[in-house]
Amino acid sequence: MRIIIMGPPGVGVDAQSEFLLERYDIPHISTGNIFRELFEEDSTIGKIAMEYIDRGELVPDDITE
């Protein structure tokens, strides 16, 4: 099973993901968590992603890849 949940920051993506994790016992990969790690590392890609997130936008696919 593959489920993709998308949305801008603050719309409840993590809450919905947690519900599905508990219900179906499936692995969870969070780009939000990955980006938070990059912010802590003060990486270049993290800085670029933060510009989008600060504006309440989704980080484009070419950055996320």
Question: Tags for this entry?
Answer:
single chain; about 60 residues; mainly alpha; elongated
Largest sheet: none
Tell me the series of helices and strands, N- to C-terminal: HHHH
Q: Rg, please?
A: 13 Å
- The number of helical segments is 4
Structural class: mainly alpha
Number of strands: 0
Mean pLDDT: 88
What portion of residues is helical?
55-70%
Beta-strand content bin: under 5%
Poorly predicted residue ranges: none
Straight-line distance between termini: 22 Å
Shape: elongated
Give the secondary structure arrangement, pairings included.
Elements: H1 13-24, H2 31-41, H3 44-54, H4 61-64
In short:
It contains 4 helices and no strands. The protein is mainly α.
Describe the structure.
By secondary structure, the protein is mostly helical. It has a domain at 29-65. It has four helices and no strands. The chain has helices at 13-24, 31-41, 44-54, 61-64. α2 (31-41) packs across α3 (44-54). The model has no long low-confidence stretch (mean pLDDT 88).
